[in-house]
Each structure stands twice: as C-alpha cells, then as structure tokens.
Design a protein that fits this description.
By secondary structure, the chain is an alpha/beta fold. The protein has two domains: 155 residues, Nucleotidyltransferase, domain 5; 159 residues, Nucleotidyltransferase, domain 5 (2-Layer Sandwich), CATH 3.30.420. It contains 13 helices and twelve strands. The chain has a five-stranded mixed β-sheet with strand order 9-8-7-10-11. A hairpin with a 4-residue loop joins strand 4 and strand 5. Helix 2 runs parallel beside helix 3, helix 8 crosses helix 10 and helix 10 packs across helix 11. The protein is globular, with a radius of gyration of 19 Å.
Length: 340
C-alpha cells in the first residue's frame, strides 16, 4: 500500500479465516519502508509527467514493489503465501471522467516474486459509474463491524458507516496531504503530535473560506484526489506564517470531521491512519463531538488500509464481491482486481 501522504511503502502479511459466516484476521508481520528522496519526488511529480515517462514509471515502480516485497518475504522467512495484493500509488483520480490510475504494474511484482498478484482494484468501479473510492468499507463491514463508523486519517480523511442497513462511505477532507507539505517548509517530514499547529494561530477568515468549499456541501458518495487539491485548495493557501497555516488547516480538518460524526450521530468511531498520531488534531475532534473516539493498537493504526487491501485480494481470489456500490456509487456490488 502506498498512500497519497507518501509516508512510505506499507507491507502487511496477514492471515484470514472464515468460520462459515464471519471473517477474522491476524496481522503476522508488517513494515513501512520509507521512500528515498528520489522515489518520493518521482511519485509526487508523476502527475506532471509525459505519457512516455509515466508508462516507464509504472513499470519501474512495479519492479520496485516486487523487489521490496520479495525482500520482506525473505527477511521474515515467509513460506505460506497465497497471493499478493497491491494497491499501487495513485497518480490520477478523475472518476467523473471515468478514469483513475494507480501505478506499479502487477505483472512486474509477479516477475520479482513468482506469486499470484492481484492489483488495479479501483478502475473497474470507476467504469461502473462509481468513485473508485473509498474501497476499505468492505473490510470495515466484515472485519470491524463492532464500531458504528471507521475513520481513516491519511492523506485524505475518509469514513465508512452503516445507514439504513447499507454501508456508505466517502472522503471528508484533506489531512496529511496538506499538513505534511506545510511541515516540509519548516524542515520536518510531518507535524509531530501537531506541535507546530499548536504553536500557531488560527486564521478564522481563512478557515471560513476553506469550510465554504463546494465539496463539503455535496452528498455522498464522493471522493477527493490531488487534482482537487491543486484546483481548490492550493489557490486558497495564503502567504503567512507556516505555523498559522498548520493551525488553520488542522482546525479545518477537525471541523469537517466532527461535522460528519455529529450529522450521522455516530456513537463510537475507530480511528486509524498516520493522522491518529497527531494528538492536537485528535484533541480538536474530541472537543467538537460527543462521539466516543477509539484508538486501536499501533499495528491497526498504521496497517489497517494495507490489511483491507490484502483482504480484498482474498475476496477477489474467491470471486466474492470486494467493492460495495453503496460506498462508491457504482451500479452494483462487484469483485474487482486484475489477477496475474
């Protein structure tokens, strides 16, 4: 799993069991491999690449994924392995134009590992009229059903919850994709514990501008991508003290997340993703909602998304539905992913 916040490559070795009615899971090994500055820059700049350069990167990144996965297999003496699921790295995401692109050719992973590889989980959903996101609700439904809702704080925040007997899901707002970029201006990879934001001052006029963006008035299902950041957020970033920008954007994320928790009357929520470690953001969310906030183990915080994409691969290998149309807006539930 490679997320938009570019924290690194998440690899999660998991075991799934089914007793005939319910699924269960166990995380056996997991690791995050930080990207070198070369890879980080390539992935960040890929949206600007020419067609030829992007095709080359798709192959090159596929081999990189395969090499890192094989090293992980060897290092952990893994012998029982049914399949490898790969999310790849999102470059373009334009569901309204019927396309999304996650680079990292699964065939290259297959060549390096000699294992069955399942990849490209999003494209089919977009072709079926869906947003191609969020996809993790299938795992929330079958693996984490004890919670009213599951909230992921990654590059973007997204949530899944039950409503009228169906699992719905949608992206809420940008989180680490903005906060990490601002922290870089201060020489930090991320705002540890939200301390930089805590030291800044919220610009309430700026905050109001952000809160009025049209996306927040749209009904679910809906999803966000880097294109939306470039088009809607970047023009609104003011030339002011970086700590103040961090304070304002952290407040913005907390406002939008709490608004959703209150609107849907969520009693308890499981929060995962890198943003869970931003204690200032969590404090802000808690102060704005009556929802009981549940922070799980470090493994679940950091690898839940990778775990669920592994689970999606398992479901695909069994020809079982792994995408919920109620979450993405596609025409019907379906089993997605290219099997190599």
């Amino acid at each position: 799993m490679s997320g938009t916040s570019l924290d690194g490559l998440d690899i999660c070795y998991s075991k799934f069991t089914n007793d005939g009615s319910d699924w269960d899971f166990e995380i056996l090994n997991c690791e995050t491999i930080p990207y070198s500055s070369v890879w980080e820059n390539q992935l960040k700049d890929a949206i600007q690449f020419s067609s030829e350069k992007l095709l080359e990167l798709n192959s090159e990144f596929g081999f990189y994924l395969g090499e890192r996965t094989q090293e992980f297999i060897t290092k952990n003496n893994i012998t029982a392995l049914d399949l490898i699921s790969s999310h790849g790295h999102t470059v373009f995401h334009q569901p309204k134009n019927k396309f999304t692109l996650q680079i990292g050719d699964g065939r290259a992973i297959k060549i390096k590992t000699n294992k069955t590889v399942i990849y490209d989980f999003r494209s089919q959903d977009v072709l079926l009229g869906g947003n191609g996101a969020p996809l993790v609700p299938i795992g929330d439904e079958l693996l984490f059903s004890e919670f009213d809702a599951c909230l992921n704080l990654g590059g973007f925040s997204n949530i899944s919850l039950k409503r009228d007997g169906k699992r719905i899901a949608f992206d809420i707002c940008p989180v680490n994709i903005i906060l990490n970029d601002l922290a870089l201006k201060l020489g930090k990879k991320y705002d540890e514990n939200g301390d930089l934001a805590r030291s800044g001052n919220i610009d309430y006029e700026h905050l109001n501008e952000l809160d009025q963006l049209h996306f927040y008035q749209e009904k679910a299902p809906k999803s966000l991508g880097i294109e939306w950041i470039n088009d809607q957020i970047s023009p609104l970033i003011r030339n002011q003290k970086t700590e103040d920008l961090l304070a304002t954007f952290t407040e913005h994320a907390a406002v939008q997340i709490a608004k959703v928790l209150e609107e849907f009357e969520i009693k308890n929520v499981l929060i995962t993703g890198g943003g869970t470690y931003n204690s200032y953001l969590i404090e802000k969310i808690k102060a704005k909602t009556k929802t009981d906030i549940h922070i799980p183990t470090k493994e679940i915080i950091e690898y839940k998304e990778a775990l669920i994409f592994a689970f999606m691969g398992v479901l695909r290998s069994l020809n079982l539905n792994n995408i919920l149309s109620s979450a993405t807006g596609s025409s019907h539930d379906h089993s997605s992913g290219i099997v190599c």
